[in-house]
Amino acid sequence: xxxxxxxxxxxxxxxxxxxxxxxxxxxxxxxxxxxxxxxxxxxxxxxxxxxxxxxxxxxxxxxxxxxxxxxxxxxxxxxxxxxxxxxxxxxxxxxxxxxxxxxxxxxxxxxxxxxxx
Length: 117
Prior knowledge:
This protein is α/β, with parallel strands linked by helices. It has helices at about 10-25, 60-70, 85-90, 105-115; strands spanning about 5-10, 30, 45-50, 55, 55-60, 75-80, 95-100. It is built from 4 helices and 7 strands; from the N terminus they run E-H-E-E-E-E-H-E-H-E-H. Keywords: DNA-binding, Phosphoprotein. Pfam families: Response_reg.
């Protein structure tokens, strides 16, 4: 069965590129430009790729909420950000891993592979 990945990022260029690449590698990909949508999901992904700074919300707050909820705390969260300096705060908010933008697709694939096994 194909692993499901949800991308929550308000940058359409990144979402499109990552969706195409992950689909090519056999993942089932969905996306949202609004991080608040993540908290309204009825079906959860195998991995959440979550941008830290999105218009209207902070990915770290979303991550904290997911990790505080018994039904969603098991979802691996890979946080991404253009700021390399906030990796520590991403991990402190409960993220399972962090990736600084711009990133190499190979590095993203390796991290997703690690989080899904």
